[in-house]
Design brief:
Rossmann fold, amino-acid racemase activity, 2 domains, alpha/beta, Asp/Glu/hydantoin_racemase, 208 residues, four-stranded parallel β-sheet, 44% helix, single chain, Asp/Glu/Hydantoin racemase
Amino acid sequence: MKVALISATRNSLQPIERAFEKHAPEIEYVHLLDSSLLNMMERDGLLTKEMLDRFIDLFRLAIKSKVDVIQLTCSAFNDAVDVLRTIFQVPIFRSDQAMLDKALEYKKIGLVSTVKETPVALSNYLTRQRPNVELLSKVDDGALHLLSKGKKKEHDSRVLSMVKDIQHQVDVIVLSQYSMEHVADEIDCKTPILTAAKETVLHLKSLS
């Protein structure tokens, strides 16, 4: 199997690479990155035609690379998948699809995010799958950029603070973005923690 990984931030690359190395080293993958997309989303606050056009360009490159699957790695853009599936025949997966499907096994789901647009995309998916799902969202908007500035310790501390705030109010905690994958190792609580990169790779492995 060959997978195209479509990313909007470099912070997504290392987590998914580590997940492949640990859980499915046999799967071949290629990266396609457009780092301007996240800035556009933060500027406009919603998915625009300009952003969709850029995704279409990335997907065309992926097809030319003869991939079997296209996998998004940035949760803020997951709502684009419904449109892109009408254009391309290759299987396309949201960045969080495998993780959220697993989260739906629980009654009350906690969403921890560092980009304000992310929980909107996640909530849309979860409520479509189960309209009566109970959601509790915590967002520290902009914390993602701390990683790009080399402030990993501050980023991780802010994520851990959100987890602490909701851990006793939910049945499962979703670390919404690939950029938070590494923080899972630092969390010490009884509430189950789900991360996107790990669940994504396990899902892709099941298809290969």
